[in-house]
């Protein structure tokens, strides 16, 4: 659907911008935790994973909650709102006052702009929307590759599957570019 033909197309653009913030926040988690979980690069000895499991009991993409990288204080839910939490904290931990890297809100803003911009220019088409998870997967692949010098096979496979799905959807007419 071409959003320029819809009277309230800006609502979709704002919605996808907010979705991009959330996806950017999750991408930050994946890029930080997946190398630890898979024991890649500087974590290949597995010591960090054992340490985190001993401390939290479970260490996955969803558990434990986010913590300060310096003092390990749990980040409160309202402090974990993409970009807004970082601004409220003025880029510092609420407990130890050490800086929290700007890469976190920058990644969230990058995905917000990318998602909103993509939908604003391309509209809402099923095949086109496959580009959004492709962006997130490609970003994770790139960042983890730069951190660890390794390609994460499940992420690469997910990227290929998403590309194939996009091609198939385009072929069957679910794209602005089909027939």
Structure characterization notes:
- The longest helix is centred in the N-terminal third of the chain and has 29 residues, at 9-37.
- The protein has helices at 9-37, 47-56, 84-88, 103-122, 126-129, 131-148, 153-171.
- The model has no long low-confidence stretch (mean pLDDT 92).
- Helix 6 runs antiparallel to helix 7.
- It has one domain (7-171).
- It has seven helices and no strands.
- The protein is an all-alpha fold and 179 residues long.
The number of strands is 0
Instruction: Provide the β-strand percentage band.
Output: under 5%
In percent, how helical is the residue content?
A: 55-70%
What is the typical, i.e. mean, pLDDT?
92
Strand-and-helix sequence, N→C?
HHHHHHH
Tally of distinct domains: 1
Number of continuous helical runs: 7
Question: Ends: how far apart?
Answer: 15 Å
Would you identify the regions where 5 or more consecutive residues have pLDDT less than 50?
A: none
Radius of gyration: 19 Å
Shape: flat
Secondary-structure content class: mainly alpha
Biggest β-sheet strands, sense, barrel: none
Layout of strands and helices, then pairs:
Layout: H1 9-37, H2 47-56, H3 84-88, H4 103-122, H5 126-129, H6 131-148, H7 153-171
Question: Can you tag this structure with a few keywords?
Answer:
179 residues, mainly alpha, flat
Write a compact overview of the structure shown.
With 179 residues, the chain is an all-alpha fold. 59% of the residues lie in helices and 0% in strands.
């Amino acid at each position: 659907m071409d959003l320029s033909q819809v009277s309230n197309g800006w609502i979709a653009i704002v919605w996808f911008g907010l979705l991009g913030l959330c996806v950017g926040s999750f991408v930050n988690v994946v890029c930080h935790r997946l190398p630890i979980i898979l024991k890649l690069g500087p974590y290949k000895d597995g010591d960090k994973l054992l340490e985190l499991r001993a401390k939290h009991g479970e260490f996955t993409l969803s558990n434990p909650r986010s913590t300060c990288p310096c003092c390990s204080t749990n980040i409160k839910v309202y402090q974990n709102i993409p970009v807004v939490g970082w601004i409220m904290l003025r880029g510092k931990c609420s407990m130890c006052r050490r800086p929290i890297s700007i890469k976190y809100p920058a990644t969230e803003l990058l995905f917000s702009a990318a998602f909103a911009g993509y939908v604003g220019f391309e509209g809402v088409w099923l095949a086109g929307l496959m580009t959004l998870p492709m962006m997130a997967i490609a970003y994770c692949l790139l960042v983890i590759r730069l951190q660890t010098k390794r390609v994460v096979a499940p992420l690469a496979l997910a990227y290929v599957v998403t590309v194939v799905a996009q091609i198939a959807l385009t072929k069957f007419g679910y794209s602005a570019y089909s027939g």
